[in-house]
Design brief:
Elements: H1 3-19, E1 22-27, H2 33-45, E2 49-53, H3 55-65, H4 69-72, E3 79-84, H5 89-100, E4 107-113, E5 116-119, H6 124-129, H7 133-171
Antiparallel strand pairs: 1-3, 1-4, 2-3, 4-5
Helix pairs in contact: 1-3
Length: about 170
């Protein structure tokens, strides 16, 4: 590959890394053409962008983006880059897809999610359990509404109890 071509590929990887908040690096080597097509289709359905990248070019793009040195050790062997805006979507996809095929691939190498580094395949379960920003906002709203709902419920039930007592007293 010519130097100009490498520069263009690095620029493309850099631009894609800047467009998405989270990325995963996985080993997808050895997948058959059918499994690769299935993986790409699953990525498309989940709004995940998938690239197969050369490690040296990815490393140069990461160096340009900032300090991603914890991820450099995993840039060996074939690498696939999963990009998305939802932090746990690629983890769920990787976990589910690797269960379905006999090669247990793609295998997680590393991830950058919610401004944190996750290195190693053993981090997959932790990544699956990470909640997205929208899920956290929903949990907070639920927690904030809970006391108000309890007060309203108590007032309504108390009101009917008082009404029942007053009605009984008036009848006597």
């Amino acid at each position: 590959m010519k130097k100009e071509d490498k520069g263009a590929v690095i620029e493309q990887i850099f631009d894609n890394l800047n467009q998405y908040a989270h990325f995963y690096i996985a080993d997808a080597a050895g997948l058959t053409a059918d499994l690769t097509s299935d993986l790409r289709r699953a990525c498309f359905k989940n709004d995940i962008k998938l690239f197969v990248v050369k490690n040296t070019l990815l490393k140069k793009a990461l160096e340009r983006k900032g300090d991603f040195s914890p991820l450099y050790g995993c840039l060996e062997g074939p690498s696939a880059l999963f990009l998305c805006d939802t932090g746990n979507a690629p983890a769920k996809l990787i976990k589910e897809f690797s269960k379905k095929n006999p090669l247990a691939k793609p295998a997680l190498k590393a991830a950058y999610v919610e401004e944190s580094f996750y290195v190693g395949a053993d981090q997959l379960d932790a990544l699956v359990s990470i909640k997205s920003k929208n899920e956290l906002i929903g949990d907070i709203i639920t927690l904030l509404q809970s006391p108000a709902k309890n007060v309203i419920s108590a007032l309504q039930s108390g009101g009917s109890t008082i009404h029942g007592v007053l009605k009984t007293l008036s009848e006597r």
